[in-house]
Amino acid sequence: MTDRFAISPFGGKGMARAQFLVNEQVRRARKALNEHATEAQSSSEHTVDKWQLLRAVTEARLVLGLSDRTIVVLEALASFTTERQLDPAGDLVVFPSNAELSLRARGMAPATLRRHLAALVKAGLILRRDSANGKRYARRSEEGQIEEAFGFDLAPLVMRAAEIEAHAAEARRLARAVRALRSEITIHLRDIAAIVEAAAEEGRGRSFAPYVERLAALSGRLGRNTDWETLKARRDALLALRNDVEKAYLEGLSEADLEAREAGHMVNENINMSANGTQNERHIHNSNPESQFETYQEKVEAGPMPPDLETKSAVESDHDTASGQRGGRRKPEAEGSGQKPPVGFETVASACPQMRDYAPNGLSDWRDLMKAAETVRSMLGVSPDAWAEARAEMGDINAAITIAAMLERAEVIRSPGGYLRRLTERANSGTFSVKPMLNALISARQKAVLAEK
User: Which CATH architecture has domain 17-159?
Assistant: First the structure.
């Protein structure tokens, strides 16, 4: 097959200028390789590992303008080449049928396949080599060698291997920089919050109120795909705030305090900047460096509690139940169930019917509810720390009931993790019970039924 063979698309579609240029670049590059390289050099120096190249394409997908599904189609095309090492001077035309290409693309629909193939052509990574009737096939010699092939040419992909690897390296460098920025933001947030808290414990909270407002404005949750410029701006703002907070804190210390600390003496034994609970308790290390940052953000972003799940500050008839939720003063109803709930199981199942969707074996008892709550907790985005605190304060069953009630109103709860932490704090102070939450849900459902009638 000649280098200038089959470059126009089948079906009367016009050929874009970019496609013609890509074909010309491939032709010239192959000619240069054949003229200036020996056969040994062509097979060793210029070959490209197709799987490493596809990995680089994945890393550089944003620069190349490719979606993950488009890369799946490219991987499927590359899987039809018999060799792992691809020679840019060789024949790289693959000619799979639509059915086989769909199977290797994880069952992708034909219309979707055509769309992603067009995206690969537009990106200049493959070329169409359409036959006269648009079919994909190969003509072989009497010895079984391919003489002419019609399908998709992967030569542009291989020719751009160096460029793609450069983009991938830059993407990796940027990813490292983003991770470093996120880590720095987390540390600044944690340290600023600790300094402000220490000042409040010393009775200087009023003078630090402006810094608290600035900290709240800079504590919004950052998305997974937040760009580097936005992260850098957040880091710079936090760094400026930290400098102001540290300066204000030091200005509130007397010279005697500073001299005493420089001499290695404690000014006040009640001021403890250590992360340990007490001097004699063993420190519990959290392997997740983002957990403290997430906890602070959850509290900031939790927002007002939904009106139909709002619990009273002093629970009326259930105060004895709420006060009995802490410290394990009540006998568990069943093994591993935690404190006895103030309502029956049927009441919970009626008020929170969505929990049945997360119980594979059905929702028949408290044990099934607790298993389903573990799944729903993860789905709502509640961190393991917040879940563990809720179970410790409320008891296993009451915590599971709380998760079930949150699932019913998930669309109005902005931050489920922060919401659960607020309820846990109320349970700690003895002002929370699950019964008003369930009553509110039942009442809302009854009103909806009456409105439909």
Answer: Orthogonal Bundle (1.10)
